Amino acid sequence: MPLHNMPQIAFGTGSKWKGQDVTDYVTNAIETGFSHIDTAQFYANEESVAAAIRETGLDRSDVFITTKWSSQAGVRESLERSLAKASWDIRAQQQLELTQVDLYLIHNPALAKDYESDWRDFEAVREAGLTKYAPCASNKIHTNHIVPSPVGASQMQKLWKIAKVKPAANQIQFHPYNYAGNKDLLAFCQQHGVVVEAYSSLSPITRYPGGPVDKPVNAAAKRLGATATQVILSWVKAKGVVIVTTSSSREHMQEYLDVGDLRALTEDEIAAIDAAGARGPPSTSAQDPRILGRNQAPKTSPTIAFFAPEANLVLYTKR
């Protein structure tokens, strides 16, 4: 798999994995079929992510790696630190070469104090060869692409005007309950060929069970002989959005990957989930920006990533 190809589904190493050795979990994910691994400097587990990739015996070109800028140091210095950490095999206690990541994102919109200046720094990292392709913007950073912090549609438009290298991807919190609030951003990204990545897509199940979305999701699951989880991920896929998810269970990892083999949702099923999501989750105001994803708070802010013009998105990769 060429490094400029982004698989449709990524295994995330944040949230509950922060500060932990994730070698075994990432190894399981790769062996199950994931070929896109999402980490970050803030997660403090880049070394074990790299160790897992080495343990699988895969060629570097077979794995798409994303990491994120935490602003503890400059854009370039931080990335060089990440590469140095990932090059040290914590189990074998030996140095192994890792010269670049595939995607480099800004982890939080608040980290970008000056969009134009920060973007120039990312472009410089790309020019220095630390990233293989054009810059990208996102919540995370990787070396093949550079990304600014999460931004909304208006910020994207401003960035678009000043960037020498245009954004290629945007990572946002995305699920049925905040879809309505992200429509403008999604439309802008799709109009300009910017890949959208989604985290927290399973919120209707994990955070807001019993809400309006359950009915259309369960109906579709019954028709397809699938799980509710798979239906929601299929909905994300139907929106043309890349999935970032995680689990400690091989069973759930396989459940996620099997979405690639499911029959597609019908237009009526997608519309029903959209409409139910617009009603908002249970016992929560539908106007709450934290739910609608209007990106007013760092946790729900979108992320942007940029790819080289020749880069192409793999809509779904199942090993």
UniProtKB/TrEMBL annotation:
InterPro entries: AKR, AKR3C2/3, NAD(P)_OxRdtase_dom_sf, NADP_OxRdtase_dom. One of its GO terms (molecular function) is oxidoreductase activity, acting on the CH-OH group of donors, NAD or NADP as acceptor. Residues 276-297 are annotated as: Disordered. Keywords: NADP, Oxidoreductase. Substrate binds at H107. Coiled coil: none annotated. The record marks K68 as: Lowers pKa of active site Tyr. SUPFAM superfamilies: NAD(P)-linked oxidoreductase. It comes from the Eukaryota. The active site is at Y43. Residues 16-276 form the NADP-dependent oxidoreductase domain. PANTHER family: 2,5-DIKETO-D-GLUCONIC ACID REDUCTASE, NADP-DEPENDENT OXIDOREDUCTASE DOMAIN-CONTAINING PROTEIN. Belongs to the aldo/keto reductase family. This is NADP-dependent oxidoreductase domain-containing protein. It comes from Postia placenta MAD-698-R-SB12.
